[in-house]
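Appendix B, record 7
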Amino acid sequence: MTHATTNVTTDAAIDWIQRLVAIDTTSRNSNLGLIEMVRDDLRRAGIEAHLSHDRAGTKANLYATVPAADGTTQGGIVLSGHTDTVPVDGQQWDHDPFTPQLRDGRLYGRGTCDMKGFIGTALSMVPRLTRTRLAKPVHFALSYDEEMGCLGAPIMLADLKARGVRPDGCIVGEPTSMQVIVAHKGINVWRCCVRGHAAHSSLTPRGLNAIEYAAQLICFIRGLADEMRSEGPFDQAFDVPFSTAQIGTIQGGIAVNTVPAHCQFDFEHRNLPTADPQRFFGRIQAYAQEVLLPRMRAEHADAAIDLTPLAGAPSLDASEQAAITQLVRALTADRETRKVAYGTEAGQFQQAGIPSVICGPGDIQQAHKPNEFVALDQIAQCVRFLDKVIDSLAH
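Structure tokens (predicted):
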């Protein structure tokens, strides 16, 4: 590929990224404006996209295939990215986050790094794909609500299974500075609701303090987190080499002179691929039901502790022998083993039987921050990488 061709293609990628960033797809909003724009552009290129919607019909995943030269749509490689972004509320930006700005070798705007940079670059390759005689197809997979707990990808993957679509491998383009990531932790989020009994604070023996019992459970969870930190299991290839747990939110009580009847808190567990998140949760459930609840009901018969899963995404542990791992390593000349604590949809693709790795433009340190940006040289690297991916699939 000539230098001039690289520049043109990089310009096309930047144009696509700017179009995507200009549509506010913060997770609380619909992403249909972006999805329908992409669908229409693909249709003009002769590529039909399949949409899978959420229950409300306000959000959608997009899956589209550029078939092989012989019409084959099975096998091939998926280029995957999530369309939603985190909010900008309370952040101090130097400009409108949804009006992309080019300056100093960087493209600024919400989602430029996480992860419209990859999506835009992948979509800019459509003209190259449609004029290439492909031996295997290339697929685009754009999801919704990844930032809310990877909620959209399972809907898309279930739809693919129902339609009998079976890709060979997947590249999830989360920002990795174009380095290969072969593993990440699982994400598990639960909500705990503790029900006590209200009373005037001068008559505390007549009430049951939900906050105090919630606090005992919170301390138990912290104890489990300390145990994992000190006793493992460990995997030193991870930036945080042990499984973690933490309390994220808590609400309870109505006034200082009232024994609180309710307390609710949300907690998360990020597990190593070798650790079972259900074992962690089982210990919490056993402590709540077998230790705390009998004490609570000795004070008031209506006491309750309810634990509810809110969200979860499986860990990723890519096989070095998988064809997609070997391909991406060969095309990037990257042989280092890197594993990360954050989660992605790659684990969901892997769980669905589609071997996956993570590799995309931008630095994860820029994600979710004010003045988010992706460096233009990262986009250029991604263009060259995807060009090689296409070459690898061509006759």
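Remarks on this record: The two ends are 17 Å apart (CA to CA). Residues 1-8 have pLDDT under 50 and may be disordered.
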